[in-house]
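Thread: DSBA-like thioredoxin domain-containing protein, structure

OP (GT): Posting the sequence first so everyone is looking at the same thing. Length is 198 residues per the record. Can we get the structure tokens written out before standup tomorrow? I want them in the notebook alongside the other entries.
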Amino acid sequence: MTILHYIHDPLCGWCYAATALLEAARARPEIRLRMHGGGLWHPAARLREGQRQHILEADARIGALTGQVFGPGYRALLADPETVFHSRPTIAALLAVPEPLAPAMLRAIQRAHYVEGLRVVEDGVLAALAMELGLDEAEFRASLAAAPVEAHINTTRRLMQRVGATSFPTFLAERDGNIEIVPHMDCYEDPAAFVARL
């Protein structure tokens, strides 16, 4: 059994790029996934002009490499100076759903953000996504409010420091108590090669 530790952020474009890698790994029964949200946008922030351009350039590379879609709603979100980027609510949403549903919730958040341009930092948007997954709205909102998100982010950052991880996403393979970073940057176009490394 290999435990795949996925250090990510729902609002990280390169984590969106890694969707196919994650799905290929999850399809293997001998691989167990553990997700660790790291808080790329923490505390909340609005984009500066230089940041906006950097993100657009990265998005173009991601689209060319992986075919991932960046919709007009998302581009409008980037262009709006009032748009707030904040990882905390999205990571809390992943903690608020039953663990087996966390990957599906991550995909839903990414689709809502990158394709539809919805403001996924808002509780109402996150609750609507949870309901699409079949969850009860009131129960999800209660779990969202109670999610231990600060402790989770802090634990993830300590893990990153311990293994020398400096970016999102980072994949770690754990076997027999030993953890090592799994290189993935050359696998965006070849998920099977990534799985073979695991």
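GT: Both are above now. Quick notes for whoever picks this up: DSSP finds ten helices and six strands in the chain. The beta strands are 2-8, 31-37, 45-46, 84-85, 170-175, 178-181.
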